[in-house]
Task: structure prediction
Amino acid sequence: MAKQFDVIIVGAGPAGLECARYLKDSSQTVLILEKNERIGPKTCAGGIVGTVEPLDLPESKARIFNALSAFIGAKQYDFTIDSAIRIIDRQALGQYQAKRISNASNVTIKAGAVVTKIGQGHVFTNSGNFGYRYLVGADGSTSAVRRYLKIDSKFMVGIYYDIDAFKDRMIFYLNGSTLKTGYIWEFPHQRFTNIGFYYNPVHWKSSAAVEILRNHMRFRGYPIDQKTYRAFPINYLYKGCQFNRNIFLTGDAAGLASK
Result:
């Protein structure tokens, strides 16, 4: 017999944990299923743009920027941002969000629970089977809930290096002739700088995209010897957030990177 919950959230990333925070101390029983053994770690650049309801991350956990620079071709543009951008390590973000719901008697987080199958009213995992009234897919670009709904996806790709360099400026580089529809970013964290390339795989194979990023780093004088890059897909095909009356998608599972 599957254990029943009012709401099952698949994925304990930023979107899933924030969804649970809205349901905290409500009359709804909530189960968060996270495939990883720890909450938070993910291949991600760590930038959080301004939101309608800011996360209010403390300065001890995030660097906060109210300005950025953009190079379009060879020309530099400097911007002041109305809503600050926060740069934070994804593990620190996940642990911070999880702590905000840790005292909620109606919310259960089950780590190490890999979803193997989704059915009408049930989610099957390697840690047991669970029933739901409402299902939220917050399980990223390769979402199992999105696949269950038979919704197509389209992907951009992000690749990046973390380097031992402390910077004080957020920078974006755009160039239609060399980067096509993508861009290169530099995100300064508290103890390192994240430098990456966001690109359309239609334009670049992964090996070519890595070389573009490495050439940029050489040009900027950044060390890349013995550094391993990381990569992640980003679904940008938005098809809505609510389906079948009781199933929802959010975050990358919903394709919210779509313009």
Summary: The first helix runs from residue 14 to 23. The mean pLDDT is 93. Residues 57 and 96 are 8 Å apart (CA to CA).
